[in-house]
């Protein structure tokens, strides 16, 4: 049975294919089209074609096309006709937006039963939902949250207030908050004014519907934070505002979940690694599983998972595997691109030679781009489309942030470590497998990792299992044998404002447009 999922049609569109209960392909449109939010109410044509190609599936072979709402009302019938013409033998299924989010989190989780919490800006006229989930049963909605009481909307307002782009840069507010313990937490808790049951009901007196700048906050808000109305916010105050919001959101989410058991998390706020860390560290739950592609693109996964379990009533659980479900490229395809660009290269004959060469570059404090195997699904690089640096390099933070990624200094990179050695260096939960949480550096290693610390000894951790990524796992171990530290700094292989690289051509262009020192794409080694 072959199921095709489509999600994020209004923003962050993606497609996925499930074959006989196994995920075999998933890719976002933006990574193929090379621009953010590549579709607006249209089908992600490139993503669909890529998934069919990767899965080696023809349109006539697809048994069901599952589409996650919301879809613009005016476009729904047109999209339906397009899909009918394209997949003539397929059953069509429309999956509610929040149900798709919930399905994307619970069905690939390791739990037989769980509470599932979905939190986003808005979707299907909801901005939050809580679900009861049990293996072999349909997801059951328990409680819903509606606009304007949206945690995601409030996060977006603060994002704009602090000078970033709402609905795009919320992650910057998260990282800005990481270095401080307290801020305006009590003010934001007052704004959120949780009622009975611990669910928020935003105090509208802190907002001004007539104001289209500064996040739409009212004079009362500025008075409470001690600033003149529409006044310039100092860097110190920006950190206090970001910190207050983040701590209040963490507190409110904990109250929304309910008591104990297993927790699954999805929706845009599931991408907040500090929130995930707070949930893991709370001691309130038996275990926490977060959908690592928790945003709207992840509803493509949720659509096929919900169709598999809810429509076809299949009981076999679905695994996310290593989350690398995009395209891979052969040596011949890579060579053709490199030679077409008239570039000099060295071909490394074995995996051992490849790894030893890369470790030698890293040991010389070179910044290395590393592109191998299938592209990751979701926004995070998990060792297949990564930029790497050595923690021993005292200038790695400055080089990566200022001269390569061109981003703010408070946005730190992750530390990749073999999963079986992670506990030696870090205190971190299981969601580090997908880089979806943060951890704490153990005291004896804090000086070593100080350039990657977020503050309060927090660090982003990527725990790499051998079965997930054997080549990257071997690279980490080889680096450890040479330097005594089996850890590499890892950030996504993309330039400022662009999606993760997908093709060899993307990799070559980004390499020569940046301060990266060396590129390993497949077994091809390029230097400047």
Write up this protein.
The protein is built from 17 helices and 20 strands. The mean pLDDT is 93. It has helices at residues 29-33, 45-55, 73-86, 97-106, 151-161, 170-177, 185-192, 219-224, 235-257, 273-281, 299-311, 331-340, 351-363, 396-405, 422-425, 470-483, 504-512, and strands spanning 2-7, 14-19, 22-28, 64-68, 91-95, 113-123, 126-134, 140-145, 262-266, 287-290, 346-347, 368-371, 385-389, 414-418, 426-427, 438-441, 458-464, 488-492, 518-521, 524-527. The longest helix has 23 residues, at 235-257. The chain is globular, with a radius of gyration of 23 Å. The strands form three sheets. A ten-stranded mixed β-sheet has the order 11-20-19-12-13-18-14-17-16-15, sandwiched between helices. The chain folds into three domains: 2-101 and 297-311, ATPase, nucleotide binding domain (Nucleotidyltransferase, domain 5, 2-Layer Sandwich); 151-290, Nucleotidyltransferase, domain 5; 331-527, Alpha-Beta Complex (DHBP synthase). By secondary structure, it is an alpha/beta fold.
């Amino acid at each position: 049975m072959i199921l095709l999922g489509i999600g994020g049609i209004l923003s962050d569109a993606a497609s996925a294919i499930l074959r006989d209960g196994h995920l075999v392909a998933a890719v976002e449109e933006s990574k193929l089209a090379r621009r953010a939010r590549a579709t607006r109410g249209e089908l992600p044509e490139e993503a669909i074609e890529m998934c069919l190609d990767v899965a080696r599936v023809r349109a006539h072979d697809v048994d069901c096309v599952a589409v996650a709402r919301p879809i613009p009302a005016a476009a729904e019938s047109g999209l339906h006709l397009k899909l009918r013409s394209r997949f003539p033998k397929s059953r069509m299924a429309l999956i509610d937006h929040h149900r798709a989010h919930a399905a994307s989190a619970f069905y690939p989780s390791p739990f037989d039963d769980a509470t599932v919490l979905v939190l986003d800006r808005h979707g299907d006229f909801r901005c939050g939902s809580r679900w009861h989930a049990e293996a072999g049963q349909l997801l059951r909605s328990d409680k819903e949250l509606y606009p304007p009481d949206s945690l995601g909307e409030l996060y977006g307002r603060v994002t704009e207030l602090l000078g970033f782009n709402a609905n795009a840069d919320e992650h910057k507010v998260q990282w800005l908050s990481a270095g401080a313990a307290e801020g305006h937490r009590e003010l934001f808790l007052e704004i959120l004014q949780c009622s009975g049951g611990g669910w928020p009901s935003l105090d509208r007196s802190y907002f001004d519907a007539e104001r289209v700048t500064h996040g739409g906050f009212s004079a009362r808000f500025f008075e409470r934070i001690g600033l003149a109305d529409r006044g310039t916010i100092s860097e110190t105050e920006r950190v206090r505002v970001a910190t207050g919001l983040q701590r209040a959101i963490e507190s409110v989410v904990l109250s929304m979940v309910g008591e104990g058991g297993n927790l699954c998390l999805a929706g845009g706020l599931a991408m907040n690694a500090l929130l995930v860390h707070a949930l893991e560290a709370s001691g309130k739950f038996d275990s926490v599983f977060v959908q690592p592609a928790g945003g709207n693109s992840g509803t493509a996964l949720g659509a096929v998972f919900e169709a598999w379990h809810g429509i076809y009533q299949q009981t076999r659980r679905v695994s996310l595997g290593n989350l690398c479900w995009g395209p891979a490229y052969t040596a011949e395809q890579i060579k053709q691109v490199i030679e077409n660009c008239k570039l000099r290269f060295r071909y490394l004959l074995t995996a051992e030679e490849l790894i030893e060469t890369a470790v030698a570059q890293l040991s010389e404090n070179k910044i290395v781009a590393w592109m191998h195997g299938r592209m990751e699904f979701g926004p995070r690089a998990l060792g297949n489309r990564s930029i790497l640096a050595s923690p021993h390099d005292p200038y790695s933070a400055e080089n990566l942030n200022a001269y390569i990624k061109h981003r703010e200094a408070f946005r730190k990179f992750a530390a990749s470590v073999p999963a079986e050695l992670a506990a030696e260096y870090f205190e971190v939960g299981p969601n580090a497998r997908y880089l979806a949480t943060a951890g704490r550096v153990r005291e004896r290693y804090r000086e070593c990792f100080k350039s990657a610390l977020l503050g309060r000894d927090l660090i982003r951790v990527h725990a790499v299992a051998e079965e997930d990524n054997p080549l990257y796992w071997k690279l980490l171990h080889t680096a450890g044998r040479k330097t005594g530290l089996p850890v590499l700094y890892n950030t996504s292989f993309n330039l400022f404002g662009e999606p993760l690289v997908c093709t060899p051509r993307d990799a070559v262009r980004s390499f020569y447009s940046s301060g990266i020192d060396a590129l390993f794409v497949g077994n091809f080694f390029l230097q400047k």
